[in-house]
């Protein structure tokens, strides 16, 4: 009999590798899944431990500062991650007995440290269990509002400060709470294959509850779905893609017309490429560009599953001038960014982000738009989007682009945007979504129109 793989050991390994900063949590989870497949129950435990410990790392550390007689910066990072993961189980996993949380954490530490370290971990976690609630250990909100929210809500203090300056305490707290929620699974129906009502009926016949999204006419939120959803005939037959409602609205901002030449300039794995294909009814020429050959290969497989295309893929680095391509009627640029709008999905991003990285992202985004602007036909459209709510990556990008490109204007009334989504559109033509109050990822999108015919 094959020995059972320990999800806690795998989780600790992922957390330790995450500290190196070389790979994202998504990448590490995908690698672990390919290397050591787990059963349904163990996989759920692994996901809960890794995502939960990462999401609540700031609050866990604030508690550990009070519980440990050793400064956190002097603790072996592997031991610190074991403490975080153990404390997360003690404080936030009600179905895990305290004894199991403590004992398994001690056993993990014994595999790479001496007996005294194991005793230290045991003492810290048992003290935490006896102490119970940790509310009284946090900074006082009246004297240190940023510190209080950072510790309670588990966010970097620098990020809380900028949100407080921009939104005030109530909206900042609400945003943090929304970012700390496990996001729903949202699908986009592939209208090349079926319609939304038919998809919902099919999913419900298999025990999945589907609900129509509020703003996107193609979206379905699914509750209680696991991996079985992706083994269903509906998935195999290309009836849907996984895509957050906010990301769905970005393609509508471009307002693509059938029969046109269209480029998805930062295509990734093809979420928006698939949507553009269905919005144009596979009529016209659709190109997908990315600098990753691996992603483009996966995109090609995905388009085949959806019955989308044909889609022509091209590998290009948008930080360099585009060579060997003609002009397009419409270009969509969902540019790489800080990712601070999707922290509920990628909680590791809040710990790797920094003000300097936001500035560097903005520089890269401006360069991407500069290189793409010359590929837009007169009268054509260029939609820019970022999964960020930070001004440097949003409004300031628009301001800089218009100053450098007087031949473009903002389309303040994109004709393809669904009627219900117009409530999210500002008078300036900016589409803004947020986990609070919209229960969507945080996105910004705008569509530029090039003058001429």
UniProtKB/TrEMBL annotation:
GO terms for biological process: regulation of DNA-templated transcription. One of its GO terms (molecular function) is rRNA methyltransferase activity. It is found in: Cytoplasm. Residues 175-451 form the SAM-dependent MTase RsmB/NOP-type domain. The active site is at 387 (nucleophile). It comes from uncultured Desulfobacteraceae bacterium. Its main location: cytoplasm. Specifically methylates the cytosine at position 967 (m5C967) of 16S rRNA. Belongs to the class I-like SAM-binding methyltransferase superfamily. RsmB/NOP family. NCBIfam families: PRK14902.1, rsmB. Its EC number is 2.1.1.176. This is 16S rRNA (cytosine(967)-C(5))-methyltransferase.
């Amino acid at each position: 009999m094959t020995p059972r793989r320990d999800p806690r050991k795998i989780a600790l390994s992922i957390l330790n590798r995450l500290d190196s900063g070389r790979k994202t949590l998504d990448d590490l989870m995908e690698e672990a899944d390919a290397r050591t497949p787990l059963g349904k129950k163990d996989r759920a435990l692994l996901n809960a431990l890794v995502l939960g410990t990462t999401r609540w790392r700031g609050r866990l550390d604030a508690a550990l500062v009070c519980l440990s007689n050793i400064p956190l910066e002097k603790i072996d990072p592997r031991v610190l991650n074991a403490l975080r993961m153990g404390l997360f189980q003690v404080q936030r996993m009600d179905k895990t007995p305290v004894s199991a949380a403590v004992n398994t954490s001690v056993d993990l530490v014994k595999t790479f440290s001496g007996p005294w370290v194991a005793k230290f971990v045991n003492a810290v976690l048992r003290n935490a269990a006896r102490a119970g609630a940790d509310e009284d250990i946090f900074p006082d909100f009246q004297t240190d509002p940023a510190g209080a929210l950072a510790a309670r809500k588990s966010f970097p203090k620098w990020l809380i400060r900028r949100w407080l300056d921009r939104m005030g305490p109530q909206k900042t707290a609400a945003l943090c709470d929304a970012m700390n929620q496990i996001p729903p699974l949202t699908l986009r129906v592939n209208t090349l294959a079926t319609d939304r009502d038919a998809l919902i009926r099919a999913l419900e016949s298999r025990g999945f509850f589907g609900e129509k999204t509020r703003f996107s006419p193609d979206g379905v939120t699914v509750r209680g779905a696991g991996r079985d959803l992706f083994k269903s005939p509906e998935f195999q037959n290309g009836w849907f893609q996984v895509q957050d409602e906010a990301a769905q609205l970005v393609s509508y901002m471009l307002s693509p017309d059938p029969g046109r030449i269209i480029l998805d300039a930062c295509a990734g794995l093809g979420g928006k490429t698939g949507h553009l294909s269905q919005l144009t009814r596979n009529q016209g020429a659709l190109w997908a560009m990315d600098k990753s050959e691996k992603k483009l290969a996966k995109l090609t497989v995905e388009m085949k599953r959806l019955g989308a295309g044909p889609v022509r893929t091209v590998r290009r680095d948008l930080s360099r001038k585009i060579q060997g391509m003609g002009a397009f009627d419409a270009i969509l640029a969902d540019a790489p960014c800080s990712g601070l709008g999707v922290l509920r999905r990628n909680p590791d991003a809040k710990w790797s982000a920094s003000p300097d990285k936001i500035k560097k992202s903005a520089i890269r985004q401006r360069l991407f738009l500069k290189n793409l602007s010359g590929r837009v036909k007169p009268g054509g459209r260029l939609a820019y989007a970022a999964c960020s709510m930070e001004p440097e990556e949003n409004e300031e990008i628009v301001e800089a682009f218009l100053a450098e490109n007087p031949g473009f204007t903002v389309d303040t009334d994109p004709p393809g945007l669904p009627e219900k989504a117009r409530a999210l559109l500002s008078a300036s033509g900016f589409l803004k979504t947020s986990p609070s109050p919209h229960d969507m990822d945080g996105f910004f999108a705008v569509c530029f129109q090039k003058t001429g015919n």
